[in-house]
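Follow-up to my post from last week.
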Amino acid sequence: MSEEIRIGVFVCDCGTNIGGVINVPEVVEYAKTLDGVVFADEGKWICSVDYLNKIKESIAQHKLNRVVVACCTPRTHEPIFKSALKEAGLNPYLLEFVSIREQSSWVHRSDPAAATEKAKELVRMGVAKARLLEPAEEIRLPVGKEALVIGGGVTGMSAALALAGQGFKVWIVERSDKVGGLLNKLTRIAPLDIDAESFLQGIIERVKAEPNIEVLLNAEVESIEGYVGFFKVKVKQGENARELSVSTIIAATGMNEIDPTGLCGYGKSPKVITQLQLEEKLKRGDLGGAKKVVMINCVGSRNEQRGCCNIGCLTSIKNAKHIKELDPQAEVFILHRGLNLKGMDEVYLKDAMEKYRIKFIKYPDDRLPEVSEEKGGLTVKVFDLLLGEEVKLSADLVVLTVALQGDESVERLKGLLKVSVNPEGFYQEAHIKLRPLDFSTDGVYLCGAARSPKGVRESMEEAMGAAMRASIPMARGYVESEGIVAVVDEERCVGCGLCTKVCAYSAIRLKEVEGGKRKAEVIKAICKGCGTCAAECPKDAINIIHYTDQQILAQVEAALADKPSEKIIAFCCHWCALGAVDVAGVSRFEYPPNIRIIRVMCSGRVDTRFVERAFELGAAGVLVAGCEFPTCHYISGNYKCKERIEKLRPKLAQKGYDPEKLWTVWLSAADGPKFVATVKNMVEKLGLRR
Amino acid sequence: MDDVISSLSVCMQCGACVGSCPVTGLNNFNVRRLARRAYFGWTGQDVLKNDVWLCLLCARCHENCPQGINLPEVMVTLRQQAVKVGATPRMITLMKSNLSKYGNPVGVEAKELISLVNEVNLPKSGERLFYAGFYLLADHIESMVKSMLRAGVKVDKVATAAAILQRVGLGGLLKAAMRGVGQSYRETLKKYLLLLPKLGVEVSYLYEEEPWVGAELHTYGLLDEFAEHAKRVSSFLKERGVKEIITPDPISAMAFKKLYPEFVDGFSVEVKTFIEVVAEKASKASLELKNPVGAKAVFHDPCMLSRYLKVIDEPRVALSSVPSLNLVEPIRNKQYTVCCGAGGLEVINPSLAREVSVKSVQNLLSASPDLVVSACPMCTMMLKLGVEKLGAKVEVIDVGDLLWNSIA
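User reply:
Got it. Predicted complex:
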């Protein structure tokens, strides 16, 4: 673009929030002196309707083609100003937001002169970036109305019904010869003791009656190509293979008991069985004459390997009740480590104790009961915490409530779906709180026991949740990304594929080009713009729109134009780091004014070049601030950043810079105090004058 | 038996019972653990020979149990189990044999027992019967207990206590004890007999024919024997046309009011404690107590009276009619009263019983009284032991004596 750059700078008083500390008129006058600035103005509250109109008028009047606002934090009003630009006929990506409230007036109140100087420099940095801004567009990918559900248990079927009910076409791929999964093996569902078989039949009837659902039995997923809206899935059914074109995929592959061989006598005696094996006996109504049953809970659970299995307590009580109903004279003990029951399930327990006289013994966390065979029967030694001594129980049947793990198909599917799995064989969701039923890859979702061990109730709830998630893009008809996406310079790209390895969203892939070469290609609609690929690319062939290398370097240079040896450049991610900065601001914590913050979307964006340039220009120090582990807003950007910074340190030393001047801090968005402490620490350790 | 043990299915092992139990801390006795063992069927010889006999049956646990479990009933059931396997303390066997030979557990001829009270002349038949109960035996029991304490029967395990007694010679011990028997409780009994006409209440009294209530048979788990005994007593009373019993002894009152109807079909004798009669008169302002008793006094609620019979306000109403009596309350009172240490334990493990009485006295001393008013002969006996052990400057007096002093 060779048009003349005409920047308008609007500086806000924010009442007295900014104006009471910073000399705003001085900042306005200073802005006018900057290259490219043709108009600068002061406003009482520039986010007000009146002033927004004024901005639009100024754009028209002064033919502005770039806008810098110097006010609060971008985390609040950025959308308002972007809308204003749009209404004024300007591309909204031509806005640069400078925060002189949270980053200056609120936190340097006792030094108005320094606050004003800092505000001026922040404006200078903002203008430097604004000069290089280019228009950008939101990108859309079309999404169709077909979905694939992997797993035909009650979870998969519930998800399919929820989708089909909305008019979407659903395929269920089930690898066994019948649907129903684990529920086929159960007699009853607690806590209402619902008959499992009739419950399952009910769901199967509904699936059969639903024309939008096609069930493929004895079928396995062979390969998955593509991305949201364009998945091509090869399914093998015996001898036949077919290809399904789907827009979204839901993984509902369920769970299974672990093999407890070696624990509590399992494998040594046929009288030691698991709860699922007990279910077989309960189905037949035949306990084989067992009169004294001892159940041992938490076998293989709640240890260093894995946590609570969630359903063990309820399952053991349910089956104990069933045993007592089959034979009221039978004596049933449940040995447990604490009964994990919620809400109305406690009534179930009360019933079990008072009406069915099931006896409960709590044993210590570090002493699993011992089972041994003695004189044709079993003896269970357990330490009764309530008596404070070990007791011996004789049993003719011992039932182990064993730990649960993800289905065996997960091992293979994780590669096909390109998703992560934890050591227990359960799938890993994108974010445990913010996106519990999404995989980080767009268009792929998970639910039920495939995600973590749970009962029928919770599985069905999650199935409907996953179906809801999947139906959003399908109902809308597209997925859309912000204009902040990665762009590949194919001339510089050598097809090394490093970018594809670091993208958490599988949004960048290698494509074949003429000459047998490969080049990286961004699937813009699912790119989140974190910038990790751009920072990792060894050839600097990738840039991020609105956060280009050139723009960021311009900010670094603008920040260090004056007295660089007193300045610390802080690269802060928009989500957690800037969040913490803002909390520090709102809390009015005071800290030294040496910090100059450069916003990036993700700490993963921070290229080593940026850091090196800062030291080259004489910065006193560099701080890289990102989301605390393990929760990066972009899944794994922070991890990559951390690795990169560690690898950079020896290189810095080689170049003659002091690696001790490069700091990192990983915080939560609420941790204003941690940010402030880090800054104060840095300023002290670097020997900077306050 | 099974029903009582099954009632423990609601026990949540909270331990409120342990916190209430006066024996906790003096011994390894832990009623929560015992309840758990009982429910799970883990009551072996060790438990049946020792633990179950350390309970006072004071029902303080039952009072505080959030699930309302009748632990004293469980304890009696466990004692029944113990009896069946022969794990009974020797003293109980002796008392049982005394009962069949002499008609009372202390093994003394009835004629000898009533020699003092014979001085009072009351009709021997009538619908309203005065019942002496433990007031008649207390002098002898006190002597037995003191004798055992002197012999050093102070061990934790009941079984070992029995062995010591065997070595020392239980029979000989008790014979020696009988030689040093006092008269104070029978003196008090006499006053009760004289008080009644002064209160305008007409009663009959059976003198040496008074049938022993047999409460200790139930206390010690000899339930079959108790049922048999109660049936005989019931028939006898019916024969004599007895329709109402008035007694100053809360133990007998409890047995007649609560246990007899359970074990004897159609037992319909009305039961009133003496203090209830006094309170009735006081509330109708027909009680004339003239002589002042200028003392700061606490009333010790007997377990049987406050928790089993729920007679709590009446003693206070009665005592508030005594001129110049400054009635104060100790920290633990009314239904939360601390057991005096009797309840049958005093002859099984007298040293432990005395430790409990010390706790009880200490509770009463919290009100800094000069006087402790008791309404049960066993309480009087135990509290006196506690006061003596502590060297406390406080007098223990039976409410009957107090009223007599004030009325005469």
